[in-house]
Amino acid sequence: MSLDNLSDEEKAQFEQELEDSDSTAILLGIHAELQAIRSLLEGAQDNPTERLTCATCGETYPSEKQLRDHARTSHKAPTDMPLEDIAEGQSL
Q1: What residues make up the domain containing 21?
Q2: Which strand (E) or helix (H) includes residue 84?
Q3: Would residue 77 count as lying in a domain?
Q4: What percent of the chain has pLDDT over 70?
Q5: pLDDT in tens, 23-67
Q6: Spatial distance between the Cα atoms of 69 and 85, rounded to a whole number of angstroms
Q7: Is residue 20 situated within a structural domain?
Q8: In the 8-state DSSP scheme, what is residue 21?
Q9: Is residue 24 in some structural domain?
Q10: Helix, strand, or coil here: 89?
């Protein structure tokens, strides 16, 4: 938060609220927010987004369907081509 954009009255009000605040309550609030952020980040690391890479051109796609559609339209791949032949280093 930048105090430069606040009027003098708003700055005074902000400073008064800060003085009136209990520092323990502020720290507990910050701690709770950090725990929530940490939880979200750990959850994201546990479930990394797997993307499939086209073996022909190297483009990546979030789903097998999108990769197969790309292979058919861009590289004229047959509809029954095994995923192992379409996706680079993938075997589902």
Answers
A1: 7-46
A2: helix 83-86
A3: yes
A4: 85
A5: 888 888 899 999 988 888 876 665 556 788 999 998 888 888 889
A6: 14
A7: yes
A8: S
A9: yes
A10: coil
88 pLDDT exceeds 70?
yes
Mean pLDDT, rounded, of the chain:
82
H or E stretch covering 23: helix 23-46
- Banded pLDDT at 91 (limits 50, 70, 90): very low
Under DSSP, is residue 22 helix (H, G, I), strand (E, B) or coil? coil
One domain for residues 42 and 11: yes
Transcribe 29-77 into DSSP letters.
Answer: HHHHHHHHHHHHHHHHHHS----EEBTTT--EESSHHHHHHHHHHHH--
Shared-domain flag, residues 31 and 61: no
Which residue reads 């995923």 in tokens?
A: 83
The CA distance from 57 to 61, in Å, is 12
The residues facing 67 across adjacent strands are none
Structure tokens at 91: 């075997």
